[in-house]
Amino acid sequence: MYAVQEKPTERSADSIEIISLLDLGYSEEAQTPNKAIATYKKAARLSESSGFDLGSFRANSYVAIVFNDLAVYDSAIYYNRLALPFAEKLNYKKGIAATYINLGNTYQFYGEYDKVVENYINGINIFKSTKDSVNASRSYQNLASLFSSIGQHDKELEYLKLALLTNPNENIEQNGMVYGDLGLAYSKLDQLPKALSFFQKADSVSKKVSNKRLDFFVARNFGEYHMLNNTYNKAIPFYLKALQLNDSLNEKYYRADLLRNLGEAYSKTSNFTQATTYLEQALAFAKANNIKELQEKIYLELALMNAAQGNYKKAYEYKNLSEIFSDSLKNENHIKQINRLEKQFETKNKDNEITVQKLKLEQQESQLQKRKMQTNYAIAIAIFSLITMIGLWMYYKQRQRRKNQELLVLKNEAQINSLESLIEGEERERFRIAKELHDGVNGDLSAIKHKLNTLLELNNKTIKEAVVMIDKSCEQVRAISHNLVPPALENFDLQTATSDYCTNMNNIHPPKITFNYLGDDVVLPKIVEINIFRIIQELVTNSIKHANASKIDVQLSIRDNSIQLAVEDDGTGFDLENTESDGIGISNLKHRVSFLNGEMDISSNSEGTFVNIFMDKTRFNDY
User: Fold this and answer.
1) Using CA atoms, how far apart are residues 137 and 172, in angstroms rounded to an integer?
2) CA distance 477 to 502
3) Longest C-alpha distance within the chain, in Å?
4) Quick one: which of 19, 28, 106, 193 could link to 36 by a disulfide (CB 3.0–4.6 Å)?
């Protein structure tokens, strides 16, 4: 993600405070991302109130980056779009281009590659219009890596060539990086001579400039080439050089991968002692840094190495460990290697069985051998009995586990039924009270108003005031009735009902309430819509009654099977650790979220309260 730095501008006292908040948020991102979001939003509010458009752009951009890191992609897209108009208003070309690139990065996680390419091209065109050829070239290079990750290497080559063509001639370091990527792309297409020519070009550039990162990739790429060309002894010096260069770069993934590559290269040259040393170092480093993809590859290489030494049992164990860490990146070659190990292990077992059978035939030739065979039978029976007992014990444990699971399912079903009955009863009572208010109290007030109107001929000022008061009472009764059973929720959908509710609350309460809807138009079960609507009511009411807020934002996002509800205010907040704050309102929220099998996250401080609720449509109960 592009983190755009401040555009030069004259600094006022407000802008200095905003920049300090942005710096504070940056320091909070790694350890407390939600706190960083709150700090950035505070900077956005202060920027908006003081008319500091650059601060508004940067604050919203940084919120988008944190949401992207938290995998809350709808919100990342929303805040990037919120930031874009401020950059356009300032005619801040670099900021506009960076926002398009960030949008493209986020759309990758949805697999919407047409939008990825569209936003990248928008950003690249702006970079080109401002003669920023370096960033345009790097953006083409990033776009090429997208197509590499999905196996479209022809497209990868197309954009790498554009990156090379766009890059200014004087920026030879960028040329060197692109040459290396072109070499890797051709190697994936098994065009090794072309790959070697580009690796050599990258090497030529690295000798002209002082760039350790480029030196690292040159050495690593030559190692890759020699491994693909089966010249393993030549690969080892390049990998060792790359490993030494990585010490200054401190790239954890590359370090673990290089240790694995060295282990593989030494294994291919039958130097199993060195191979074991490097593979064990790679495994320890990958575990310490939670690099699961490499753990799978390292276990697989350990399996292959042990198979090459005839240690088929150990190879089979490593193969099983490899499967634990396997994922969609595993290619057909890995699968074939694993299957080959299984066949070798099975062949070894069959050879052992044939040997045992021959031994039995030899034992039959003499009485002594018969006695030995009887002894072997006794041992086999004992082992079989032991295995049978273990099997029965495991069967009993498995059966007991299934029963416990069934009891847990029944308990959960009972809780769900109880919650459903409670919620249905509450809705029926709301409907009854609303009907009585509408048909009873409202009717009586209308009758009184009618009688008083007949006395208006007396031109009595007090009667006129009474009529006005009755009109206001009727409006309040109607509002209460609609709040209890909203007509929009009965006749339309959740989006319409929530929009009407926020509009009505805006008319009768001081805080400014805004509602935003993102995503697809979907039809939800009515009981689900009712519960989500009641959650929104509870959160908005809490903000109005207790938070002394001046602004309340309600955001509802529905995409595919994911539903996200976010309600934020700028009020006084409350203490999450204080048990007294966990009153009826919070309890009702927890019950409703639990009923929907959702997850709720609340963050609150003196700057306001932020409630995030995530729901999965596939986890809703059947209605």
Assistant:
1) 12
2) 18
3) 135
4) 28
CATH architecture assigned to 251-365: Alpha Horseshoe (1.25)
% of the chain surpassing 90 pLDDT: 35
What is the distance between the alpha carbons of residues 217 and 373, in angstroms, rounded to a whole number? 63
| Count of beta carbons in the 10 Å neighbourhood of residue 228 | 15
Question: Rounded to whole angstroms, how far apart are CA atoms 448 and 450?
Answer: 5
**What angle do helix axes 252-268 and 212-228 make, rounded to 10 degrees?**
30
Question: CA 369 to CA 515: how far, in whole Å?
Answer: 89
Residue 125 corresponds to which tokens in the numbers above? 């065109």
Domain spans, the chain: 251-365, 510-619
Q: What is the mean pLDDT of residues 345-350?
A: 42
Count of H-run helices and E-run strands, the chain: 24, 5
Asked if 223 contacts 261 with a C-beta cutoff of 8 angstroms, the reply is yes
| 109 in Cβ contact with 71 (< 8 Å) | yes
**CA–CA separation, 462 vs 184, rounded Å?**
90
Ordered alpha helix ranges (H), 207-251: 212-228, 232-249
- pLDDT at residue 408 tops 60: yes
Contact 48, 514 (CB under 8 A): no
Strand order in the sheet with 608-616: 512-519, 551-559, 562-569, 608-616, 599-605
3-class SS at 605? strand
Assigned CATH for 510-619: 3.30.565.10
Average pLDDT, the chain: 80
pTM, two decimal places: 0.48
DSSP state for residue 366 in the 8-state scheme: S
Asked if residue 329 has pLDDT above 60, the reply is no
Instruction: Give the integer Cα–Cα distance in Å for 333 and 187.
Output: 16
Q: What is the pLDDT of residue 431?
A: 59
Question: How many CA atoms are closer than 13 Å to the CA of 297, on its beta-carbon side?
Answer: 21
Q: Which of 428, 436, 456, 570 is nearest to 513 (CA)?
A: 570
> What is the 3-class SS of 419-442, one letter each residue?
HHHHHHHHHHHHHHHHHHHHHHHH
Report the C-alpha gap between 622 and 541 in whole angstroms: 30
Residues 341 and 319: beta-carbon distance below 8 Å: yes
What was the pLDDT predicted at 462?
Answer: 66
pLDDT in tens, 204-242: 999 999 999 899 999 999 999 999 999 999 999 999 999
| Residues 95 and 9: beta-carbon distance below 8 Å | no
Amino acid identity of 270? Answer: S
Tell me the two tokens of residue 295: 């753990």
Give the span between the Cα atoms of 250 and 77, in whole angstroms. Answer: 31
Q: Stretch 102-120: mean pLDDT, rounded?
A: 86
Strands 599-605 and 608-616: antiparallel
Distance CA 310, CA 345 (A): 9
Please, what sign has the CA dihedral across residues 455, 459, 462, 468? positive
375 Cα distance to chain centroid: 61
Neighbours of 299 (CB within 10 A): 23
> Any idea of the CA torsion for 374, 376, 377, 380, to the nearest 10 degrees?
160
